[in-house]
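Posting for a labmate who doesn't have an account.
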Amino acid sequence: MTVAPPRPTAGVRRNRPALMGRAPQDTPAGLGTYLLLAVTMLFAAFPLYWMFVIATSNDEALAKLPPAVVPGDRFMTNVDEVFSLQDVYFAASLVNSLIVSSVVTASVLFFCSLAGFAFAKLRFAGRNALMLFVILTLTVPNQLGIVALYIVMGRLGWNGTLLAVIAPGLVTAFGVFYMRQFIVNTVPDELVESARVDGATTMRVYGNIVLPAIRPALAVLGLLTFVATWNDFQWPLITLSGTDYPTSMVAISDLASGNYVIYRRVLAGAFIATVPLLVMLFIGGRQIVRGIMEGAVKS
């Protein structure tokens, strides 16, 4: 005598198609999440806002208790004082920073993407050892190489010029590693091999296949490189010491030097130097998020 297996209940039959056919949904954020994000944003943005408040006020606003939180009406006056100082050359420093940041960013995007493509898709002897060496250089603080770098630039006769600021940043280890990882996860090996079968050269594969696929990563790396180069202070201060046309960060430090510091001038100059970065981040913010997310979700 055979016993029939128990039949599933109606409830199970009713729920199974719904469970199997329904895609998992993200849990909507609650009110507490939005409040936490709003408070975090306020704390992050307040220093920049307060810098603008002091840049638009007079000297007494800095000593007020509680601190001044309403912008004044002296912004153009303070800006005019910053640009008219004879021993700072603030306008020229902004131009120098723009030149250095643009050249370094363009160089990093080209060389790092090319090196990342080589490490990701080309097969050559010592590839893994060289990649390991590149990664290990990320653990070395930049300050350890300042003396050697200064000596090398002196032998080349570049100290005191923008070439000494540009040359050390033309390629970065982080950029090579980041582009290598993104290309590995984004560009299939089969696509590269099919292009080679069709007769494409290595540079054509790089230009026609790899570059269009890594545009989000290029946007992320470009913005990060531009911001880091614009904000660099230590090396430009050392190599451009004594020159009349430093970079913007060095010019801001000159505004803060002396026995009596006029902070409304310092913060006005700092706010002016921050505006180009805010514009770039506002324009490319979506590209940063897109590039980071694409690199994170691809297997």
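Reply:
Got it, the structure tokens are right above this. The longest helix spans residues 263-297.
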